Amino acid sequence: MSSQSADYVAVHNGVLHITVATAAAGTSLDFAGVDAAVPLLRDLPAEVGAILLNSSGANFCAGGNVRDFASAEDRAAKLDDLAGRLHDFVRAVDAADRPVVASVHGWAAGGGLSLVLLADIAIGGESTKLRAAYPGIGYSSDGGMSWALPRAVGKARAADILLTDRVVEASEALSIGLLSRVVADDEVQATAVATAEKLATGPREAQNRIRRLLRLSANNTLDAQLDLEQASIAEASVSPTGIEGVDAFVGKRKPVWP
Q: InterPro entries attached here (predicted)?
């Protein structure tokens, strides 16, 4: 890992920290971090048990750098390139098979909201605000928002949030499922880190099974999902993780997860 990459991606206590935005250009999406993370996500060290998306600026991520778009000689080529790089990142996070936590302080707008939706657990602050932002500059969405948003909040709410470009305050975001928890503004980062570190020490195989079931449930009938759950729990019972979990419970000891 280069010294520049280390400014954006680092492993601490089993958690891969990825900085998606910095103070530069008003906490717009920082592609130095996005690009640096992709190769590491595709070949994760065994020690990594969770992924944390965060920012070193005042906001989680205020979306794309609009001034950069405006100055491009060929805007279509510029946006095609940036969207492709962002989508490489989204695909790499999705394929990493690790729980994803987002530390959502301040604003999450545009691509920043797409990244919130990418997380399994999103921790926000009392003054956190979310916004689609794309219609405000005459653009359609990227980063998987049109896929993830209706799955998170339903088609009607997704259309309202995207088409009207309204601001979603933290309390509403929590109630409709855009955020998992809301804490005091000065506790967002610490809570997100603690959550990611707890996940990193947990039963990784069981976590991956749960995450797969949750994702498949969106397009499955109840009957099909019941079959998947039945097969998954039976397989889990004879896996090293499942055996250790039950043995530890019966033996009244703390499990040592493989």
A: ClpP/crotonase-like_dom_sf, Enoyl-CoA_hyd/isom_CS, Enoyl-CoA_hydra/iso, Enoyl-CoA_hydra_C
The 10s digit of each residue's pLDDT in 113-170 is 999 999 999 999 999 999 999 999 999 999 999 999 999 999 999 999 999 999 999 9
HEC assignment per residue over 11-34: EECCEEEEEEECCHHHHCECHHHH
pTM of the predicted structure, to 2 decimals: 0.93
Strands 168-169 and 129-131: antiparallel
Q: Given the structure tokens 């498949």, which residue do they identify?
A: 216
The interaxial angle of helices 204-217 and 240-250, nearest 10 deg, is 110
CATH 3.90.226.10 range(s) for the chain read 9-201
Predicted pLDDT at 25: 78
As beta bridge partners, residue 55 has: 21
Closest CA to 8 of 27, 29, 36: 36
Q: Which residues have C-beta within 8 Å of that of residue 47, sequence separation ≥ 6?
A: 11, 14
CATH architecture of the domain with range 9-201: Alpha-Beta Complex (3.90)
